[in-house]
Amino acid sequence: MIWLVAFLSCIGLICAEAPFNHNVHNQRVIGGYDAPPNKWKWQVSLQLDSYNDGSYYHICGGSIIDPFNIVTAAHCILSMNPSEYRVVVGEYNLYEYDGSEQFKRVEKIIVHPGWTGDLANGNDIAMMRLAEPVYDNGYVAIAELPYPDQMLPHDFTCYITGWGLINGFGSVPDILQEAPINVVEHSVCSQHNWWGSIALKTMVCAGGDGVISGCQGDSGGPLNCFIDGAWRVHGVVSYGPAGMCNQVNKPTVFTRVSSFLDWIYSVSLLHILDFAKGWRKRIMFTP
Fold this sequence. Notes:
By secondary structure, this protein is mostly beta strands. It contains 2 helices and 13 strands, in the order E-E-E-E-E-E-E-E-E-H-E-E-E-E-H. It is globular and about 45 Å long.
């Protein structure tokens, strides 16, 4: 759900788009409002320099899951060249430098092996490995994650956050937006007059009231839910209806994080092992 125009071939779904429109307007998450500063510390802005001229544009959200790794949506990966991206953590106002931001280069992109490019098949999740770690400057935090296979009850209230559109037209807002959004359990979301068979159990549906929803620009960002004594990232924004994003019975659909914990942890662990191996080599060969 990126903020530019040029839908891929998935009728009725919001898909990744090519970055051609650089106009800026003051829009936001549908039904949302300005988030308080320094609240959603794990939220990141994924930005792309598609013309290799040093000009970066917000395309998606993401979440910090450890100092080196960001989780986002697989459909946000418009290029497998890490040098075209940067990740901004501690971001609040996209168009002002507040001193809270950290700008991080991407070293490696890891897309889930089950991702086929078709949102209806699920597995819409990817990780971006940073070239240098995020450090604690008081404005960032590592996201808490759910328990394996944990599912949220119907009508449970979570928050969607991001710099997404107010509708299918326009551009990203200045300030990070938040909106309360209620979970729609799988048995409802998979009904034929909702999302039907393309709502999988590895997804979380939320919204569908015709008022609050995610939209282009929110993709890859978190579904934040306060449960078990902590805010936890239970979802990664994946898809919603094309055109007007806040349609009745067409909730925003998220990749269910609890279904992918083994993969997330395995990718993180491989990085730790690679980092330790490289550090050991430097020690061994330092004169």
